[in-house]
Design goal:
With 271 residues, the chain is of the alpha/beta class. The protein has 10 helices and 13 strands. The chain has one domain: Alpha-Beta Barrel (TIM Barrel).
Length: 271
Amino acid sequence: MTLTKRVIPCIDVDLDAEGNPAVYTGVNFENLEYTGDPVEMAKVYNEAGADEFVFLDITASADERKTMLDTVSRVADEVFIPLTVGGGIRTREDIKETLRAGADKVSINTAALDRPELITEGAAAFGTQCMVISVDARRRYDEGGEYYTEIEGESCWFECTIKGGREGTGVDCVSWAREAQSRGAGELFVNSIDADGTKDGYDIPLTRAVCANVGTPVIASSGCGGPEDMEEAFVEAGADAALAASIFHFGEYTIEEIKTYLAEREIPMRL
């Protein structure tokens, strides 16, 4: 039986000047623009036919604060599809509280890199299906990596970054994806710092490199400009799901239009 591919809208949530949760959209994790209310947007995407929904608290880790669980709970009340929540999740107790607030899965980046045992602990306590390991990767053209691919004639590797792409780690993304899988990650959420918000397409070499080296489902993220980009992520890179934000937030495409386009090209979709 062929598994259907998934189309996943994502909201990046931060606190506005008054301290209220708000959705922001930017380019390369910078120049963020107010986009809407997280609860209202969640309701819209649930009704629009999204396969899943992702809520990312984009400054919780950098600001060393807790995830905004009251907002997560209100979002969970509006969505009846799998909900993944990320940002500021550092401990087993944080995972428990986030799931209790209504999340079906948690997405962890910085804390897992700091202490990989968190993946093992979370998978043992709550199940591998709850554990999504997020990788914010950027291209590097030096000799610091382990897994290399050729891009336009140059040898490139992908470095894991933390705190919303603000800090490099020196860790090879593919190597880390393999370790995360071995520790119990149920999915890998692969973000490209270079492609984020550009609408120039997903970083196919990055996504392909991860997909080729793990058996865990991979979600392609960052750079989607339209249905052709999702088709490329599925067909050329082997992704299991494709995430997008701005093309949906600003009404450039509906989820129905994306899914219809993909289904017409014989990519299995849930319509």
